[in-house]
């Protein structure tokens, strides 16, 4: 779904590719996307990969990689250029979507202006060590997925915003901290901790400051504003450059309960086999 805001001056100059990251219908992400659409003032493209939501196929690692590359290539095609400025594409990924975003930034480096990674992991291997440590010794035999963010992040030169829920119950907070530390070639890396943020609700726990931080990052990444300096501040948050924190106020959420959303990484079988399509009645 492409949401276009032609009446806003930045809508056609700052498109954001927002990757749906869960094995559920894309509708679960609509409340989040609606807030992004309102507060970020840019085009939002939501993507259901193969095997996700109503999309056909099986959600294999290579399949998701091809889908992500196809989305970025399409946004740079003649057909999309009348709606968005492809030179100002920001790729956003949460959880597994973060791994997909990192991958496509590494394979399409000149087609991506910036990267936002939220609550993602070092690698699938590292996640197995976390959620199923008893299988560590047989990983070489049974593990079929890689998604090595820790191997790709050090190669990226893009501006990168790392959004990390400090109470993530699925991906250890240290994974995001290590990814941030590994982004040594990024021309502008920023860190946005969400004090009460869990795996799925960091965007809610962060309140408006979450969206303001994303908007400032996007604007600076695509050249719409001057990058924040280390002493840029207002009453609720302080932005810093080169790996320092963007400290967000811990505002109350909007009352929505997202605890029922299934986590992609909770599907342990996905780590070891090629899953079939997940149907809505199985959720």
From TrEMBL:
Region (Disordered): 223-256
Cellular component annotations (GO), alphabetically ordered: membrane
Polar residues bias: start-end ranges: 226-235
The Serine aminopeptidase S33 domain, residue ranges: 42-137
Matching InterPro entries: AB_hydrolase_fold, Hydrolase_4
A Pfam cross-reference name: Hydrolase_4
Residues spanning the signal sequence: none
GO molecular-function terms, A-Z: palmitoyl-(protein) hydrolase activity
Protein's name according to its UniProt entry: Serine aminopeptidase S33 domain-containing protein
Organism name: Aphanomyces astaci (Crayfish plague agent)
């Amino acid at each position: 779904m492409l949401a276009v805001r032609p009446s806003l001056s930045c809508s056609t100059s700052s498109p954001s590719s927002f990757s749906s990251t869960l094995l559920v219908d894309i509708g679960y992400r609509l409340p989040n996307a609606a807030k992004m659409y309102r507060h970020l003032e840019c085009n939002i493209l939501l993507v259901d990969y193969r095997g996700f939501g109503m999309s056909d196929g099986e959600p294999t690692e290579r399949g998701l990689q091809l889908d992500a590359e196809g989305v970025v290539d399409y946004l740079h095609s003649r057909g999309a250029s009348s709606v968005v400025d492809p030179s100002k594409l920001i790729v956003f990924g949460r959880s597994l979507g973060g791994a997909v975003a990192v991958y496509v930034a590494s394979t399409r480096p000149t087609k991506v202006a910036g990267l936002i990674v939220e609550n993602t992991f070092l690698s699938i291997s590292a996640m197995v060590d976390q959620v199923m440590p008893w299988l560590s010794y047989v990983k070489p035999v049974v593990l079929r997925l890689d998604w090595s963010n820790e191997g790709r992040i050090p190669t990226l030169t893009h501006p990168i915003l790392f959004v990390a829920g400090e109470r993530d119950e699925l991906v250890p907070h240290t994974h995001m901290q290590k990814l941030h530390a590994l982004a040594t070639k990024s021309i502008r890396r920023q860190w946005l901790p969400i004090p009460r943020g869990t795996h799925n609700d960091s965007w809610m726990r962060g309140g408006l400051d979450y969206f303001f931080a994303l908007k400032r990052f996007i604007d600076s990444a695509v050249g719409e504003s001057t990058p924040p300096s280390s002493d840029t501040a207002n009453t609720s948050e302080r932005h810093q450059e080169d790996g320092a924190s963007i400290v967000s106020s811990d505002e109350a959420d909007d009352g929505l309960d997202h605890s029922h959303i299934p986590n992609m990484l909770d599907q342990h079988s996905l780590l070891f086999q090629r899953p079939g399509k997940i149907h809505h009645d199985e959720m």
